[in-house]
Design a protein that fits this description.
Strand 3, helix 6 and strand 4 form a beta-alpha-beta unit. 43% of the residues lie in helices and 18% in strands. A 6-stranded mixed beta sheet has the order 1-2-3-4-5-6, sandwiched between helices. The protein has 2 domains: 63 residues, Orthogonal Bundle (434 Repressor (Amino-terminal Domain)), CATH 1.10.260.40; 176 residues, 3-Layer(aba) Sandwich (Trna Endonuclease, Chain: A, domain 1), CATH 3.40.1350. It has 283 residues and is α/β, with parallel strands linked by helices.
């Protein structure tokens, strides 16, 4: 008789969560290695593992807890684990969030193919507030600016509103000084881009008045960018939309708040969307 009890195959939800954890740990290990300016060979030697294993971990492949602990110890990091109630915690930080990364990648690839200047995780600071734009897109001819703030979950509308409103007010000025000069942008389009899941839809509907105050404008300016143009009218706009990073034939990839009452969820929640992205080879 086997010394170890039999364990059934992991469910799709469990497998997706394990993959998300592995992707997050791999990203943290790679970031820490690059900060130290170590090669993968150096990290492998310090941790007592093979270089191939280091490569696989950084690519998000699952491995043993001991391997993660070895890599963490070599990099001066401490491995911690917990079983959290998802109803009490937000989604993983962006560095550990493959759904966030996949959504930003989809948007960045589309605008880069249009020949725009695309910058991800663009930093800016206004007095004591320091933040980052998930995705900034610049058309130098205008010059015009498109700013995407990507959310895979909305655990706290108040906190979201505070950070979002600061970016709406000060981000364009900071990026203009860095990229286009003192005259600023002809048009600025802010887009709060939310994952098209039942979890997010519920929050948008429950806090509809608050959400509409964050994106009161028609999505026409964003639609112009999406189609390869720029807004016809100068000035700043802010809109909120739902985005599905999974391509569906003959299905719109995004909808604005005008469709909030009738929109059907494309994915049940974060875990299901992550699983779909992995099946699609996007995360």
């Amino acid at each position: 008789m086997s010394r170890h009890p039999r364990v059934s195959s992991a469910s799709p939800a469990v497998a997706a969560r394990l993959s998300a954890v592995a992707a997050g740990l791999g990203a943290q290990a790679r970031e820490a290695r690059l900060r130290r300016r170590w090669t993968t060979q150096r990290l492998a030697a310090e941790a007592g593992v093979s270089r191939t294993l280091v490569y696989l971990v950084e690519r998000g492949h699952r491995t043993t807890i001991e391997t993660y602990a070895r890599l963490g110890a070599a990099l001066g990091l401490r491995l911690e684990a917990s079983l959290d109630d998802p109803r009490r915690h937000a989604r993983p930080p962006r560095a550990e969030d493959p759904v966030h990364a996949a959504m930003v990648e989809l948007l960045a690839a589309r605008y880069a193919a249009q020949g725009r200047l695309v910058t991800a995780d663009e930093p800016f600071q206004h007095y004591q507030f320091a933040g980052r734009a998930d995705l900034a897109v610049i058309d130098p001819a205008g010059p015009d600016l498109l700013h995407h703030e990507v959310k895979t979950a909305i655990p706290n509308v108040g906190e979201l509103a505070g950070a979002w409103n600061v970016k709406r007010q000060y981000l364009a000025r900071a990026l203009a000084g860095r990229h286009v000069g003192p005259n600023g942008f002809r048009s600025v389009t802010h887009v709060l881009t939310v994952a098209w899941t039942a979890e997010c839809l519920r929050v948008l509907r429950l806090r509809e008045a608050s959400i509409r105050s964050l994106g009161p404008d028609d999505p026409a300016a964003f639609a112009a960018w999406w189609q390869g143009g720029v807004p016809a009218t100068p000035g700043a706009t802010a809109t909120v939309l739902l985005l599905d990073p999974i391509e569906r034939p003959r299905a719109a990839p995004w909808v604005g708040l005008d469709a909030l009452g009738s929109a059907r969820a494309r994915h049940a929640g974060y875990v299901e969307l992550l699983g779909a992205l992995r099946m699609d080879g996007r995360a």
